[in-house]
Amino acid sequence: MCIETTAFFTRHEEHMVNIYSLVQEMRGCYAALEPFCHDFTKHICGKCPTPCCVNRHGLPDFEDLVTFRAMNLVVPAFNFDA
């Protein structure tokens, strides 16, 4: 799925200008929210033997993969045994 998503963005890069602009706004929003989420969850996640953040923020679905690609991010490798 990741390879197909990357290929799609590569083939249609000239049409993605607006999307790239929007996802930069999204990145800013995520960056602003991350400290709040961390503060909110640290009391629970610190006691969890298998926290979601072992894989950063859990496992991505298709929409996440598209968003990662639009943000020009490399999809992280996931540990499915965690």
Your description of this structure?
There is one protein chain. Helix content is 59%, strand content 0%. The protein is mainly α and 82 residues long. The protein has one domain (2-8, 20-70). It is flat, with a radius of gyration of 15 Å. The mean pLDDT is 75.
Using brief descriptors, characterize the structure shown.
0% strand; 82 residues; mainly alpha
Would you summarize the structure shown here?
The chain has 82 residues and is mostly helical. It has one domain. It contains 3 helices and no strands.
How many distinct folded domains? 1
Order of helices and strands: HHH
Biggest sheet record: none
The parts where pLDDT drops under 50 for at least 5 residues are: none
Helix/strand class: mainly alpha
What is the approximate shape?
flat
Overall average residue pLDDT: 75
* Percentage of residues in helical conformation: 55-70%
Radius of gyration: 15 Å
Number of helices: 3
What proportion strand? under 5%
Distance between the termini: 21 Å
Number of strands: 0
Topology:
Layout lengths: L1 H10 L5 H29 L16 H9 L12
Helix pairs in contact: 1-3
